[in-house]
Structures are given as structure tokens and as C-alpha cells.
Amino acid sequence: MPNPPDVTVTKDNPLNVTDAEHEFGTVTVEPQGQIFVYTEAKVSITSLVVKS
Q1: Is 14 among the domain residues?
Q2: Which stretch of DSSP H or E encloses residue 49?
Q3: Pick from 1, 52, 3, 4: nearest CA to 29
Q4: CA 6 to each of CA 10, 24: distance values in angstroms, whole numbers, following the listed order
Q5: What is the tally of structural domains in the chain?
Q6: pLDDT score, position 2
């Protein structure tokens, strides 16, 4: 099983969590970045980094 992807979330590149994509490695949220959740599945994020 492959490792979950690392993601950087920015103002222009929000993270959309869906039924197909709900497991992530490191999620880095830049200022004004947004995460939208469109699933009832369990969401897994190994590490969440929020930058200010």
C-alpha cells in the first residue's frame, strides 16, 4: 500500500477531501488556505502544519 500523499494548501489551491481522497501524509496549510470536506468517511492526516 503506498504512503498517503503530502499536500500544501494555499489560497488558490484548497484541499477538497472526498470519498476517493481522504488519506493524507503531511498537510501544510498556508495563510488563507482552506480545507473542504465532502465525505462521511474517516479523514486521516498524519501531520497537520498550519503556517501564519
Answers
A1: yes
A2: strand 44-50
A3: 52
A4: 13, 6
A5: 1
A6: 86
Tell me if 2 is assigned to some domain: no
- pLDDT tens digit sequence for 11-52: 999 999 999 999 999 999 999 999 999 999 999 999 999 999
> Does some domain include residue 1?
no
Calpha distance 29→41 (Å, rounded): 21
- Cross-strand pairs, 16: 36
Q: Pull the grid cell for residue 46.
A: 498524519
* CA atoms 40, 24, 21, 1: torsion sign: negative
Tell whether 36 is covered by a domain: yes
In terms of residue numbers, what domain contains 18?
7-50
Is residue 1 scored above 80 in pLDDT? no
